[in-house]
Amino acid sequence: MDLSNRKTHSSGHSTQGKSSDEFKKPNNSKGENDIVNKVNISAALGFLPNHTFSINFKGIGNLHRVSRVAVTSKEPGVVGNGFDLGIKTLVVLLFLANVAYQFAAYFTGLISSEFYMVLGGKDKHGFNIVLGKSIGYTLLTGGLLTFINFMLGMIQAKSRMGLTRYTHDRYIKPKAFYDLILRKNVENPDQRITQDIDKLSASYMNVFSIIVIYPVVAIYYTVRTWLITGYIGPVSIYVYFIVGVIVSNLLIPMLASKVYYQEKSEGYFRNHHVYTRDNSEEISFYGGEEKVKNEADRSLSSLFKRQKAVAIFTVPIYMAYEFFSYFGASLTYALVGIPLFTGMFDHLTGPGELSSMISKSSFISMYLIYAFTTILSAARDLAYLVGYSVRISQLWDELETINEDATNDWVQESPEGIVEVYNLSVESPTESTLISDLSFSVLPFNNLLITGPNGCGKTSLIRTMKGLWKPTSGTVKLPYKDGKMDVLFLPQRVQLVYGSLRDQVTYPETENESNSRFADGGDYNQNVRIINILKEVGLSHLLKPEYHLSFIDKNDFSLNYNIETSPESVLDIRHSTPTWEEILSPGEQQKLCIARVLYLNPKYAILDESTSSLNPQAESQLYNALIRQGITLISISHRESVYKFHKNCIRFDSTGRYDYSEIAN
Ligand SMILES: Nc1ncnc2c1ncn2[C@@H]1O[C@H](COP(=O)(O)OP(=O)(O)OP(=O)(O)O)[C@@H](O)[C@H]1O
Known about the structure:
The protein is an alpha/beta fold. Helices cover 62% and strands 9% of the residues. It folds into 3 domains: 344 residues, ABC transporter transmembrane region fold (Up-down Bundle), CATH 1.20.1560; 151 residues, P-loop containing nucleotide triphosphate hydrolases (Rossmann fold, 3-Layer(aba) Sandwich), CATH 3.40.50; 87 residues, no CATH class. A 6-stranded mixed β-sheet has the order 8-9-10-4-11-12, sandwiched between helices.
C-alpha cells in the first residue's frame, strides 16, 4: 500500500487541527499556521482532543446548527445553477467518493502481494497483467483522491459562502454590529466571521465522511487481521494506539500552553510593526524612532524567549512521533511473524506464495493502523470543529438577542416635521450621568449649536437621537420622508468608503436609490450635481485626471475610457486599495463629508465637529453652502467661528446640566 496516497487523503482535514488555546488568542494568521504545523505532528500519534475541548451534546448541537445553515443555504452559488452543483449534491458525491476510495485503496494495497506472487513464480504473462492492474488501480486511487480534494474545496467555498452570508444578514444591519461591539459579550466578531467560519467550512464535511466510513473500515480490517494473526494482532494494534493516545494527551497540553504564549507574543510583535507603519509620519515628526525601535526590540526579545521554550518542549513530542511512526511499521511485520512461526503459512509452498502472503498480511494490519489514525485524527478535528461552531453559534445567539430587542422606540416621527427632544436623560455605558432632563426643539432654518467641555456628552446626545444609545428617559422626534429619517448625522470621525470619488460623495445612498432619484435626467444630472458640489466645497482639483493618475492602479485606469476628455469619468476611478484617507488631507476629508450632506440634501443635518480641521474661510464657505441649500443644522462645536451660523445654543456643563440661549448675531 502506498502510504503517500493515504497521507494526501488525510491532509485534506488534518491541517485544520488547532491547539485549544488558539481559540482564546487574538487574531494572528501567520502564528496560526505555525501552531498548526507544530501541532500537526500529533496526527500520526492519534491525538484525542485535550480536556479543554471535550465534545458534549451542546457542542454537537451547535455543530448541527451550523452545518444545517450551511447545507440549507439558498444563496446563489451555494445552490446549484447550470453545471454548478449544489452543496447537498456535493456532500453526497463526497461520501460516495470516500466509499469508492476505500475499495480502490484495498485493491491498490493488495497489488504488491500480487507482484510478489508473479515475480516469485517468474510468470511473465501474470506480471504484465498485474502491472496493468497496478497502473489502473493507481490511476483510480489518484483520481478519486483528486476528486475528493476537489469536492472538499467546493464544499468549503460553498459552505463558507452560505454561513458568512447568513451571518452578514444578521450582523451588518442597523444597531446589530453597533450593539454587539458596544456590549462586548462576544469578543473578536471579525475573527469569527472571517476565520472561524472558513476553518470550519474547510473540514467539517471531510470529518463527517471519515467518521461515518472509517469505523466500518476499522471493523473490517480488524476481522481480516484477526483471521491472519488470531486475537493477538488486533489486540496489539489496539494497545499500541491506546498507549499512543495516552502519551500524546500527556505531551500536547504542555506544548499547547507554550505555543499559546508564543502566539500572544507574536501578536504583540506584529502590532508594533502595524503601529510603526500606521504612524510613520507622526513618529518622523516627533523623532520618536529610537523609542519605537526600543519597544519593538523588547517585544522581539519576549517573542524569542517564548519561541525557545516551544523548541525545547517540542523535543519529546518529536521523539514520541518518530518512535511511534517507526514502531507502527515494525509492528505490522512483527504481527506477520505470528502466523509464520505458528505454522499457519506452512501450506504455502509455491514460488512467491509466502512472500505474497506476508505482503498481503502486513498491508491488512497496516491499514488497520491507518484506519485508527484517521479516526483518531478526525475525532480530534471534530473537537476543534465543535470549538469553532460554538464560537460561531455564540455570535449568532448574541446577534439574535440584539436583533430581538433592537428597538429604538424613543425615536419617533415628528408630525410637524421638526427635531424635538423631550425630557431626555442619558447615561454612558459605565452608567455615569451625562445628560439630565434635556428638552429642546429645532424649527426649520433655526440652526442650533451644541457646545460644552470635552467628554460632557455632546456626541452621546446625538447617539441617543439616532437611536444607537437607549436613554434612561425621554423621547426624540425627528422628521421623516418616505418612511426614512430625514436627518443626516455626520459623525466626528470622517468615514471614507471603498470606491470612487462618486462613492465618497453619494455614501450612504445605494445605487438603486441614486437611480430612482435621478431617474428623469439619468446619470448626467447626477454627474452635474456631484461636480458642482465638489466645486462648491473647494474640491474641484479632485476632478482633474492628473490628480488621480499618480494614485490609480494601471488596471483600474484601463477601465476608464475618455478620462482625458470627459471630466465626469474621473468620478468613477476606483483605487485598487482604499487610498482616499492617504491622498486627502484631514481638511479635504471634511470637505468631502460636507459635499455628502449637500448631495443627500436632508431636511436637517447634525454635524459633530465636522469643520474642526478647516480654516475659517473654508468653514464659512461650507456653512454658507449648507444654509443656502436650506438644510437646517445642528452643530456640535467648540469653535467660536461657527457661532454666527447658528440662531440658538445649548451649552452643557460637565454635570449633565445645560443652558439654552439665543445667539446674538
Ligand atoms: N463606549 C463607551 N464606553 C464607556 N464610556 C463611554 C463610551 N463612549 C463614550 N463614553 C464616555 O461618555 C462620556 C461622553 O462622551 P462623548 O463622546 O459624548 O463626549 P463629548 O462631549 O462628545 O466629548 P468631545 O467634546 O471630546 O468630543 C465620556 O466620558 C466618554 O468617556
